[in-house]
Amino acid sequence: MSDDPGGSAVRRDRFSGGPARGFLSSLADDARIFEADLAVDRAHVVMLAEQGIVEPGVAGEILGALDEVESAGHEALPAGEDVHEAIETAVIERVGEEGGRMHTARSRNDEVAACLRWRLREDLLDAAETTVRLREVLAGVAAEHTETVMPGYTHLQPAQPVSLAQHLLAYAQMFMRDHERCADALKRVQVSPLGAGALAGTTFPVEPKFSASQVGFPESFANSMDAVSDRDFAAEALFTAALAAMHLSRLCEEIILWANPGFGFVTLPDAFATGSSIMPQKKNPDAAEIMRGKTGRVYGNLVSLLTTLKGLPLTYNRDLQEDKEPFFDSDRTMRACLSIMAAMLGELEFETEAMREALSEGFLNATELADYLVARGMPFREAHHAAGQAVALAEARDVELDELSLSDLQKIAEEIEDDVFDALDYETAVSRRNAPGGTGPRSVVAQLDAVGAWLAKNGGQNA
Ligand code: ARG
């Protein structure tokens, strides 16, 4: 690829020079859509030949030249304002002036929109696949911990005991929704704009549905002006990425908290942590922190595109060239984050003893006492009050609820009997919550079965 983006054979007339050449050119960024442009060119040329718009012999020569351009690679492209122009120049260099027929009945406006959609389809399919991998890892770890109890939090205050499996499976749900969002966004990505021309359609007898099928899209555009200016599909994909980044960031935050000695719930694998240059005792959760930090740029990319779009009159405006960097950046960032998270999760060491011990602080079984009283006929509000009194008493004595004596408890509520101590047991508290979606082991196993069935349907490797 020449360093000089201007002066191409195709547009030598108007873009031969000037101080803005570098500024105008997207050729370097367009490396990511090099493959897409070749696919779009081929689809268009085949359609032109099928429709008798270009002689089959010329079409064949152009297709041969495109193969050569592909083998030479993006780096070998001649100068050009963008990849579309540079590839066209490269084709003309090989075929001669007849190569210029490739651009019959189209414009770079429908062409670039098609390229972006092509690239995005590939990237969304990859992203969807990585969410499958992430669910698989989460389910694998969760399956080992259906009976590992730990504190569940609200307001980051100890609330009720839960299983580690339940906690991890909550994230598995989030990544399933991310997968669904990728699939849903894909529906609106796979609409071909080929045939829309610059903005008004074309006088040539094109067959947009055929062009669409050639690029593997099930649909083609309905309105030429919308086709060349629509970037909703890219904004949706960036939103999908932003939401997935938010899920990853929350999980990172958990890992960071859990790795803090105050929690001590996980030991970080060395490969995902670093030491401090001056404090020998430190093991910092850098991978999780960097990933949490990356969320900002992924949100930023969405806002960047939305802002680029907000003031644009129909139809194509050159501002749209700015759609690429945010999209490429979010794609690159999310690829890295999703795969690092899958790798890190698989290697986290869960400190189940510390989780169990943490239950003894914060009266996480107070709800059990209230439920126990309700089961014995007390109205819930009253039961809640009685359990509160028991907590206050235990707090005053610096003991846990189940360390109060039966007679102390009976002074608070006469309904209480000896079996209360079973009810206050943390494992019992978790194991009793088997209603659908709850943290009980039977419910968690049912959730795991559902995840397993989903993985089998969506290409999980170990499903
Ligand atoms: N590089 C341009 C872009 O990314 C391609 C389309 C140029 N079209 C035009 N009419 N100048 O949007």
Give an account of the 3D structure.
This protein has a two-stranded antiparallel ribbon. Strands 3-4 form a two-stranded parallel ribbon. The radius of gyration is 30 Å and the shape is elongated. The protein has 18 helices and six strands. By secondary structure, the protein is mainly alpha-helical. Helix content is 59%, strand content 5%.
Write a concise synopsis of the structure shown.
This protein has 463 residues and is mainly α. 59% of the residues lie in helices and 5% in strands.
Question: What's the layout of helices and strands?
Answer:
Layout: H1 21-24, H2 34-50, H3 56-72, H4 83-95, H5 108-143, E1 149-154, E2 157-163, H6 164-189, E3 191-192, H7 208-215, E4 219-220, H8 224-229, H9 232-259, E5 266-267, H10 286-310, H11 324-347, E6 349-350, H12 352-358, H13 366-375, H14 380-397, H15 406-412, H16 420-424, H17 426-431, H18 441-457
The chain binds arginine.
H/E element sequence: HHHHHEEHEHEHHEHHEHHHHHHH
**Average residue-wise pLDDT:** 94
Give the N-to-C terminal Cα separation: 45 Å
> Biggest sheet: strands side by side, in what order?
1-2
Main sheet makeup:
2 strands, antiparallel
How many helices?
18
Low-confidence stretches: 1-7
Query: What characteristic shape results from the CA principal axes?
Result: elongated
Radius of gyration: 30 Å
What binds here, in terms of ligands, is:
arginine
Please state roughly what percent of the residues sit in beta strands, choosing from under 5%, 5-15%, 15-25%, 25-35%, 35-45% or over 45%: under 5%
The assigned structural class equals mainly alpha
What's the helical proportion of residues? Answer: 55-70%
Give me the count of strands. Answer: 6
